[in-house]
Design goal:
By secondary structure, the chain is an all-alpha fold. It has helices at 67-78, 81-93, 96-125, 136-145, 147-183, 192-207, 216-239, 257-270, 274-282, 290-316, 332-352, 354-363, 372-390, 396-438, 449-460, 466-479, 486-508, 511-514, 518-525, and strands spanning 32-35, 54-57. A two-stranded antiparallel sheet has the order 1-2.
Amino acid sequence: MFFFRRSSAKPAPRPSRAPSFALPRRRNPVLLTPSHQHDQLPFLSRSRFSALPHFRAYGDEPESLSLFIAILYVVDLFGIFPFLTLPALMVRLGYFGVLLVLSIIFLQMYTSFLLSQCWTMAEYLDPSIMQKRNYPYAALAELAFGPYVSLLVSVLLDLSIFALAVPSIVMSAQNLEAVVLRMSAGHYNFSYCYWAIIVGLVICPLMWLGSPKHMRGLAIIAVCVMIIIVGLLWYCLLGASAIGTPFQGVSMELPGFLTILNGYSILAFQFDIHPVLLTLQIDMKRKSQVSWAALVGIAITCSVAIIGSVIAAYKFGSMVANNLLKSLPNSVPFYVMLILMSLQLCFSVTVASSAMFLQIENYFKLPETLCCKRVLIRSCVLALEVLVAEFVPSFDALMDVVGGTITGPLVFILPPLLYRRIRRMELVHQRIAAEASYGSLPLDLNYDPVELEMEPLLMTTKPHTPRGLWVRLVRLLHRLECDVSCTMGVLIFGLLATFLSTYLNLFTLGDLFTNNSPCLGNLSII
């Protein structure tokens, strides 16, 4: 019976006579690999984890950024502000300025490392956080401290990115106005108000790009332009006539407290990459290398800025202007440099604004592909930035407010808090998972040995005694998940610097309105 073919069996399909290019293409099978390391996350809510294995698809991986491209992004994010404003700041601070600059930059590197480690630990604790890749900073805050802190972080992040874009537009328009004014020897002036609108029109199509992984070519062109700018700037500095003796007016004495505070605000404004750091990390091929990208990018920018500051201090001393461009003589390389600076500022605004736009588009549930709604939203936000730039007297007026009040919490306060909290969550998860696997202890989600040890001390000590105050302070620090360590020192520094800068800005905020911009003056005349 086994020798007879069944009548129900279908004959083998005949080979197609169609050419190979007319046949449908076969897709490569998507390999699904289970990952059982996140099967149970005991300290998370039921909606935050699943008992089933998590499957990852390796078939259609999105394009990722290499370490080299990430370094180019970091260099582009800083833009040209450190090259132009750092010389006058270091001259005012004297030799103490070198120590302050290096200290702020070191803290920036350290908090960048803390923030990148937070995302790495968060992916281990809650793999579903990758679904929140459009707003990673707020997602970390929600994981660590809940939705209210997440909302606060979202507001600070959007304000910081929006406020960082306005000075870039202002300076770009001022550079183009200076080119026309100096080339015509003051006989013809094309108003800054119109240049700001033209700059906005140049930036607008660039803003329609997606996340940093879609801007590789833009980052490469921006860094090439930056190299040409640095070469032309040093050429103009070395060719300029010296004023007075070398390093005239540079003091060895400790500067005043307000000068140091002002310097902190400017440095925090100039060397801030935290709003875009996590977005860059998510798009990288090896996410653990984002710390090296931040380190190398900051080191390159800082080294070039300090060398230019030393040359400017040697040439001009205390006569150097707050904007170094005002101290340089007219020449053809100088005009070319001004135009390239305006172009590079357009590139910098485009890259820096990506994190804000991704967060806004996630709120409106827009797709990651280019669509009309993305074009409309990004164009409206850019139009608002140009409108604000029309009524800002100068970019110097915004650096203190943005750097001291808005950037400080995102750079020096939140990264240590998030790191200590998420690190503690990881340790608790590891301990509970190990104990539950061996069956030595029941699975207690609220078990906290430090709290249990402090309860007898809180009961026996009086609250108004020094010992009672200290015990309650330690419990408060434990609940904030901040140890008395380097992260705690950075946190205290950030709190004090932000509070003092904000208090000082309350008295200097009126400068934004007393020094009217030319656009506001023309509007009042009309």
